[in-house]
């Protein structure tokens, strides 16, 4: 009976996060970039950039991995693939400006790549400038062909026919998120262990994610066990309804109405948070597409970061913590 209850619980959790993971498309393939960026949409291999401050999270190498980590450029930005060892990179504010608040930043990329610059480092630098300690999570990814041509071919096959990413069975979805979820939990644990060194209040650690990173952020909130984010941001992620825990953190959501993945799928997540009487703020931008991140664009979606910072200030997260 105990085993059956465990199986039922895992199946129920799989259903809760399934929409976040199954529908999370490849951001680099779907991004509605500004015209100047769109002209630079070709993927080109690059050497792995220096990451001297990256800290290995200790979650081990990706089981069964055969392809090694590789990097490419697209839209004038840097992306990582075949990540087999998770790292966390701190971007710390000037101590004179430090608020004590921290944010784990989870880039997107359909769990096959990571938009490390546009949805990672650039976000972290902007947060640090506001006095927030930011930590970019490079989580382990599903393996893809090591060469770019093979990768692009695999992605075309993945998206062809069904009009989107394959949905799979709930058990498959949980298997796909297991490694990134362990990495996210380890990131929270590491920041809390070194909170004094990094001038962080361990009770004011939040998480913001983009696309698939938004799915990881929600999965961490719903099944992160001891992660317990103090607040979360879902940026162009799935808005499928979920079962909201009683202690659910304040939620910030930003989405473009013309997002090809999530713009026409309803707003069940917002309704779920409101029905549970938990704090939620929702920004639906008229235009912006998917994957806008920190790219400079003429659409109002570019203002999502300023709105996120105002929301944090409203929740007293930018006041110096004791």
From TrEMBL:
Sorted UniProt keywords: Hydrolase, Signal
Transmembrane helix listed as a keyword: no
Keyword Chaperone: no
Highest classification ranks of the organism: Bacteria, Pseudomonadati, Pseudomonadota, Alphaproteobacteria, Sphingomonadales
A Pfam family hit: Abhydrolase_3
Alpha/beta hydrolase fold-3 domain: residues covered: 179-239
Gene Ontology molecular function, alphabetical: hydrolase activity
Protein name (record): Alpha/beta hydrolase
Residues of the signal peptide: 1-38
């Amino acid at each position: 009976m105990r085993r059956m209850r465990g199986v039922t619980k895992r199946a129920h959790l799989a259903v809760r996060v399934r929409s976040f993971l199954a529908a999370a498309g490849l951001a680099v393939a779907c991004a509605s970039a500004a015209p100047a960026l769109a002209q630079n949409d070709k993927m080109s291999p690059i050497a792995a950039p220096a990451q001297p401050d990256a800290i290995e999270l200790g979650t081990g190498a990706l089981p069964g991995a055969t392809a090694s980590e590789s990097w490419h450029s697209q839209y004038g930005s840097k992306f990582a693939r075949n990540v087999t060892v998770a790292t966390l990179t701190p971007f710390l504010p000037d101590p004179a400006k430090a608020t004590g608040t921290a944010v784990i930043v989870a880039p997107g990329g359909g769990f096959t790549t990571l938009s490390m610059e546009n949805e990672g480092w650039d976000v972290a630098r902007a947060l640090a400038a506001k006095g927030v300690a930011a930590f970019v999570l490079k989580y382990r990814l599903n393996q893809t062909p090591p060469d770019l041509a093979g990768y692009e071919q695999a992605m075309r096959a993945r998206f062809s026919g069904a009009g989107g990413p394959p949905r799979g069975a709930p058990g498959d979805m949980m298997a796909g998120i297991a490694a990134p979820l362990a990495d996210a939990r380890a990131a929270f644990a590491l920041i809390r262990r070194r909170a004094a060194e990094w001038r962080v209040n361990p009770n004011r650690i939040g998480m913001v994610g983009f696309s698939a990173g938004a799915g990881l952020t929600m999965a961490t909130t719903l099944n992160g066990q001891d992660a317990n984010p103090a607040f979360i941001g879902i940026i162009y992620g799935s808005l499928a309804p979920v079962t909201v825990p009683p202690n659910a953190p304040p939620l910030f959501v930003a989405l473009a109405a013309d997002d090809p993945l999530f713009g026409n799928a309803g707003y069940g997540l917002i309704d779920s948070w409101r029905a549970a009487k938990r704090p939620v703020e929702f920004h639906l931008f008229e235009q912006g597409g998917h994957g806008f991140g920190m790219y400079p664009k003429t659409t109002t979606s570019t203002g999502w970061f300023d709105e996120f910072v105002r929301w944090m200030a409203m929740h007293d997260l930018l006041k110096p913590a004791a």
